[in-house]
Design goal:
- With about 200 residues, the protein is α+β, with helices and mostly antiparallel strands.
- It has one domain.
- It has 8 helices and 5 strands; from the N terminus they run ααβαββββααααα.
- The strands form 2 sheets. A 3-stranded antiparallel beta sheet has the order 1-5-2.
């Protein structure tokens, strides 16, 4: 699958990267946010690639002007305000449905585990994330866990590591980077340049 096509379809390099990892069986489930007008092409792509696509039963109003906001307000589907849908992608229908259900019921532990986040990082999120403390980004000490460039569309991980030197997070990032180096070396090189600290 051409990476540039994925970027156009999904709207960012990070989203395209996540889908690439899903297609290469490195991730079982991916969660991304989309506005209604973005969904038609995404859904068509999923049908062509035999990916299951489950849309959240609510919308989210982002609390700030960033596409990478960690804070949002859930609103019902019937609300006329323009909100973002969460979409859960997987090659396994049950896993996509479970991710949607865990999000709907606010079971953050099971959702995090299903998304492939390390146990230690899920526990860190549960203990630390609050409506007043939504940005759990740590000062970067290595490129694998560096989240400081995610607002500029450059990141390897899709979760908040519990520590900058979290071994489980580093292992995941190394796996993701290896897939990118084989499937999209230009993206891998760009990430290494931008994330090195």
């Amino acid at each position: 699958m051409n990476f540039n096509v994925l970027v156009i379809l999904f709207g960012s390099q990070t989203k395209a990267q996540e889908i690439l990892l899903l297609l290469h069986d490195v991730k079982d489930v991916v969660r991304q946010g989309f506005y209604d007008e973005e969904l038609l092409l995404v859904e068509q792509f999923c049908q062509e690639q035999h990916l299951f696509f489950v849309k959240s039963k609510f919308k989210v109003l982002l609390a700030d002007d960033s596409d990478y906001s960690n804070k949002g307000l859930r609103i019902p589907l019937e609300d006329s305000r323009k909100g973002m849908f969460f979409v859960y992608f997987s090659k396994n229908e049950e896993k996509a449905l479970l991710a949607s259900y865990y999000e709907l019921t606010e079971n953050h532990q099971q959702l995090g585990l299903l998304l492939g986040y390390p146990n230690c990082c899920v526990a860190y999120f549960l203990q630390t994330f609050t409506p007043q403390n939504t940005d759990l980004e740590l000062p970067p000490t290595n490129h694998y866990t560096n989240l400081s460039q995610r607002h500029q569309d450059a990141v390897l991980l899709s979760h908040f590591p519990c520590r900058s030197d979290c071994p489980a997070s580093i292992t995941l990032a190394q796996q993701y980077l290896k897939v990118l180096q084989e499937a999209e070396p230009g993206r891998a090189d760009e990430l290494l340049k931008r994330l090195c600290v």
